[in-house]
Amino acid sequence: MGSLQAPPVSILNRYTGPEFQPIYSTKVTVSGGEAGHGRASGVARSDDGSLDVELRLPSELGGKGGGTNPEQLFAAAFAACFHGALTLLATRNRIAVRDARVEVAVAFGRDPMDGLFMLTANVLIHLPGVERSLAEELVRSTERFCPYAKMTRSGIASIVALAP
């Protein structure tokens, strides 16, 4: 088995087609588990079997904890995507970003606009050894490039439908 490799910098090349062009897709299914409630006791499984996690309601929301939750999964996905985009852009621009870290803090709470629920996400990037103005420029470029940052800023194309 070979060593793990980052994607090629050529993935940064702009696409000029007329429609969305899928490069990778996946499907995750959540079932309700013991409590019959995906968030409280569910199981999340990907179609290829690589993801298989028990979901548990955090104690702050009245659960027992003891498993991951949607906010942690979203924070991990956002941080991983942003980190990957950051390192690709840094590589293309010949900027050394050794020991770069991306922390994403996600909060689930009440929405004052409609009284229901919303999420907030705060992204903190650590770029030790990179001159501050250069680091700021790299972070701004990554924010424009990273699909998760774009999604949280502009929304996501989404279709919600009942299965036949």
TrEMBL record:
InterPro entries cross-referenced by the UniProt entry: KH_dom-like_a/b (IPR015946), OHR (IPR019953), OsmC/Ohr_fam (IPR003718), OsmC/Ohrsf (IPR036102)
Which biological process, per GO, is one annotated for this protein? response to oxidative stress
- Protein name, as recorded: Organic hydroperoxide resistance protein OhrB
Q: What is the lineage of its organism?
A: Bacteria, Pseudomonadati, Pseudomonadota, Betaproteobacteria, Burkholderiales
Which protein family is named in the record?
Belongs to the OsmC/Ohr family.
The signal peptide stretch is: none
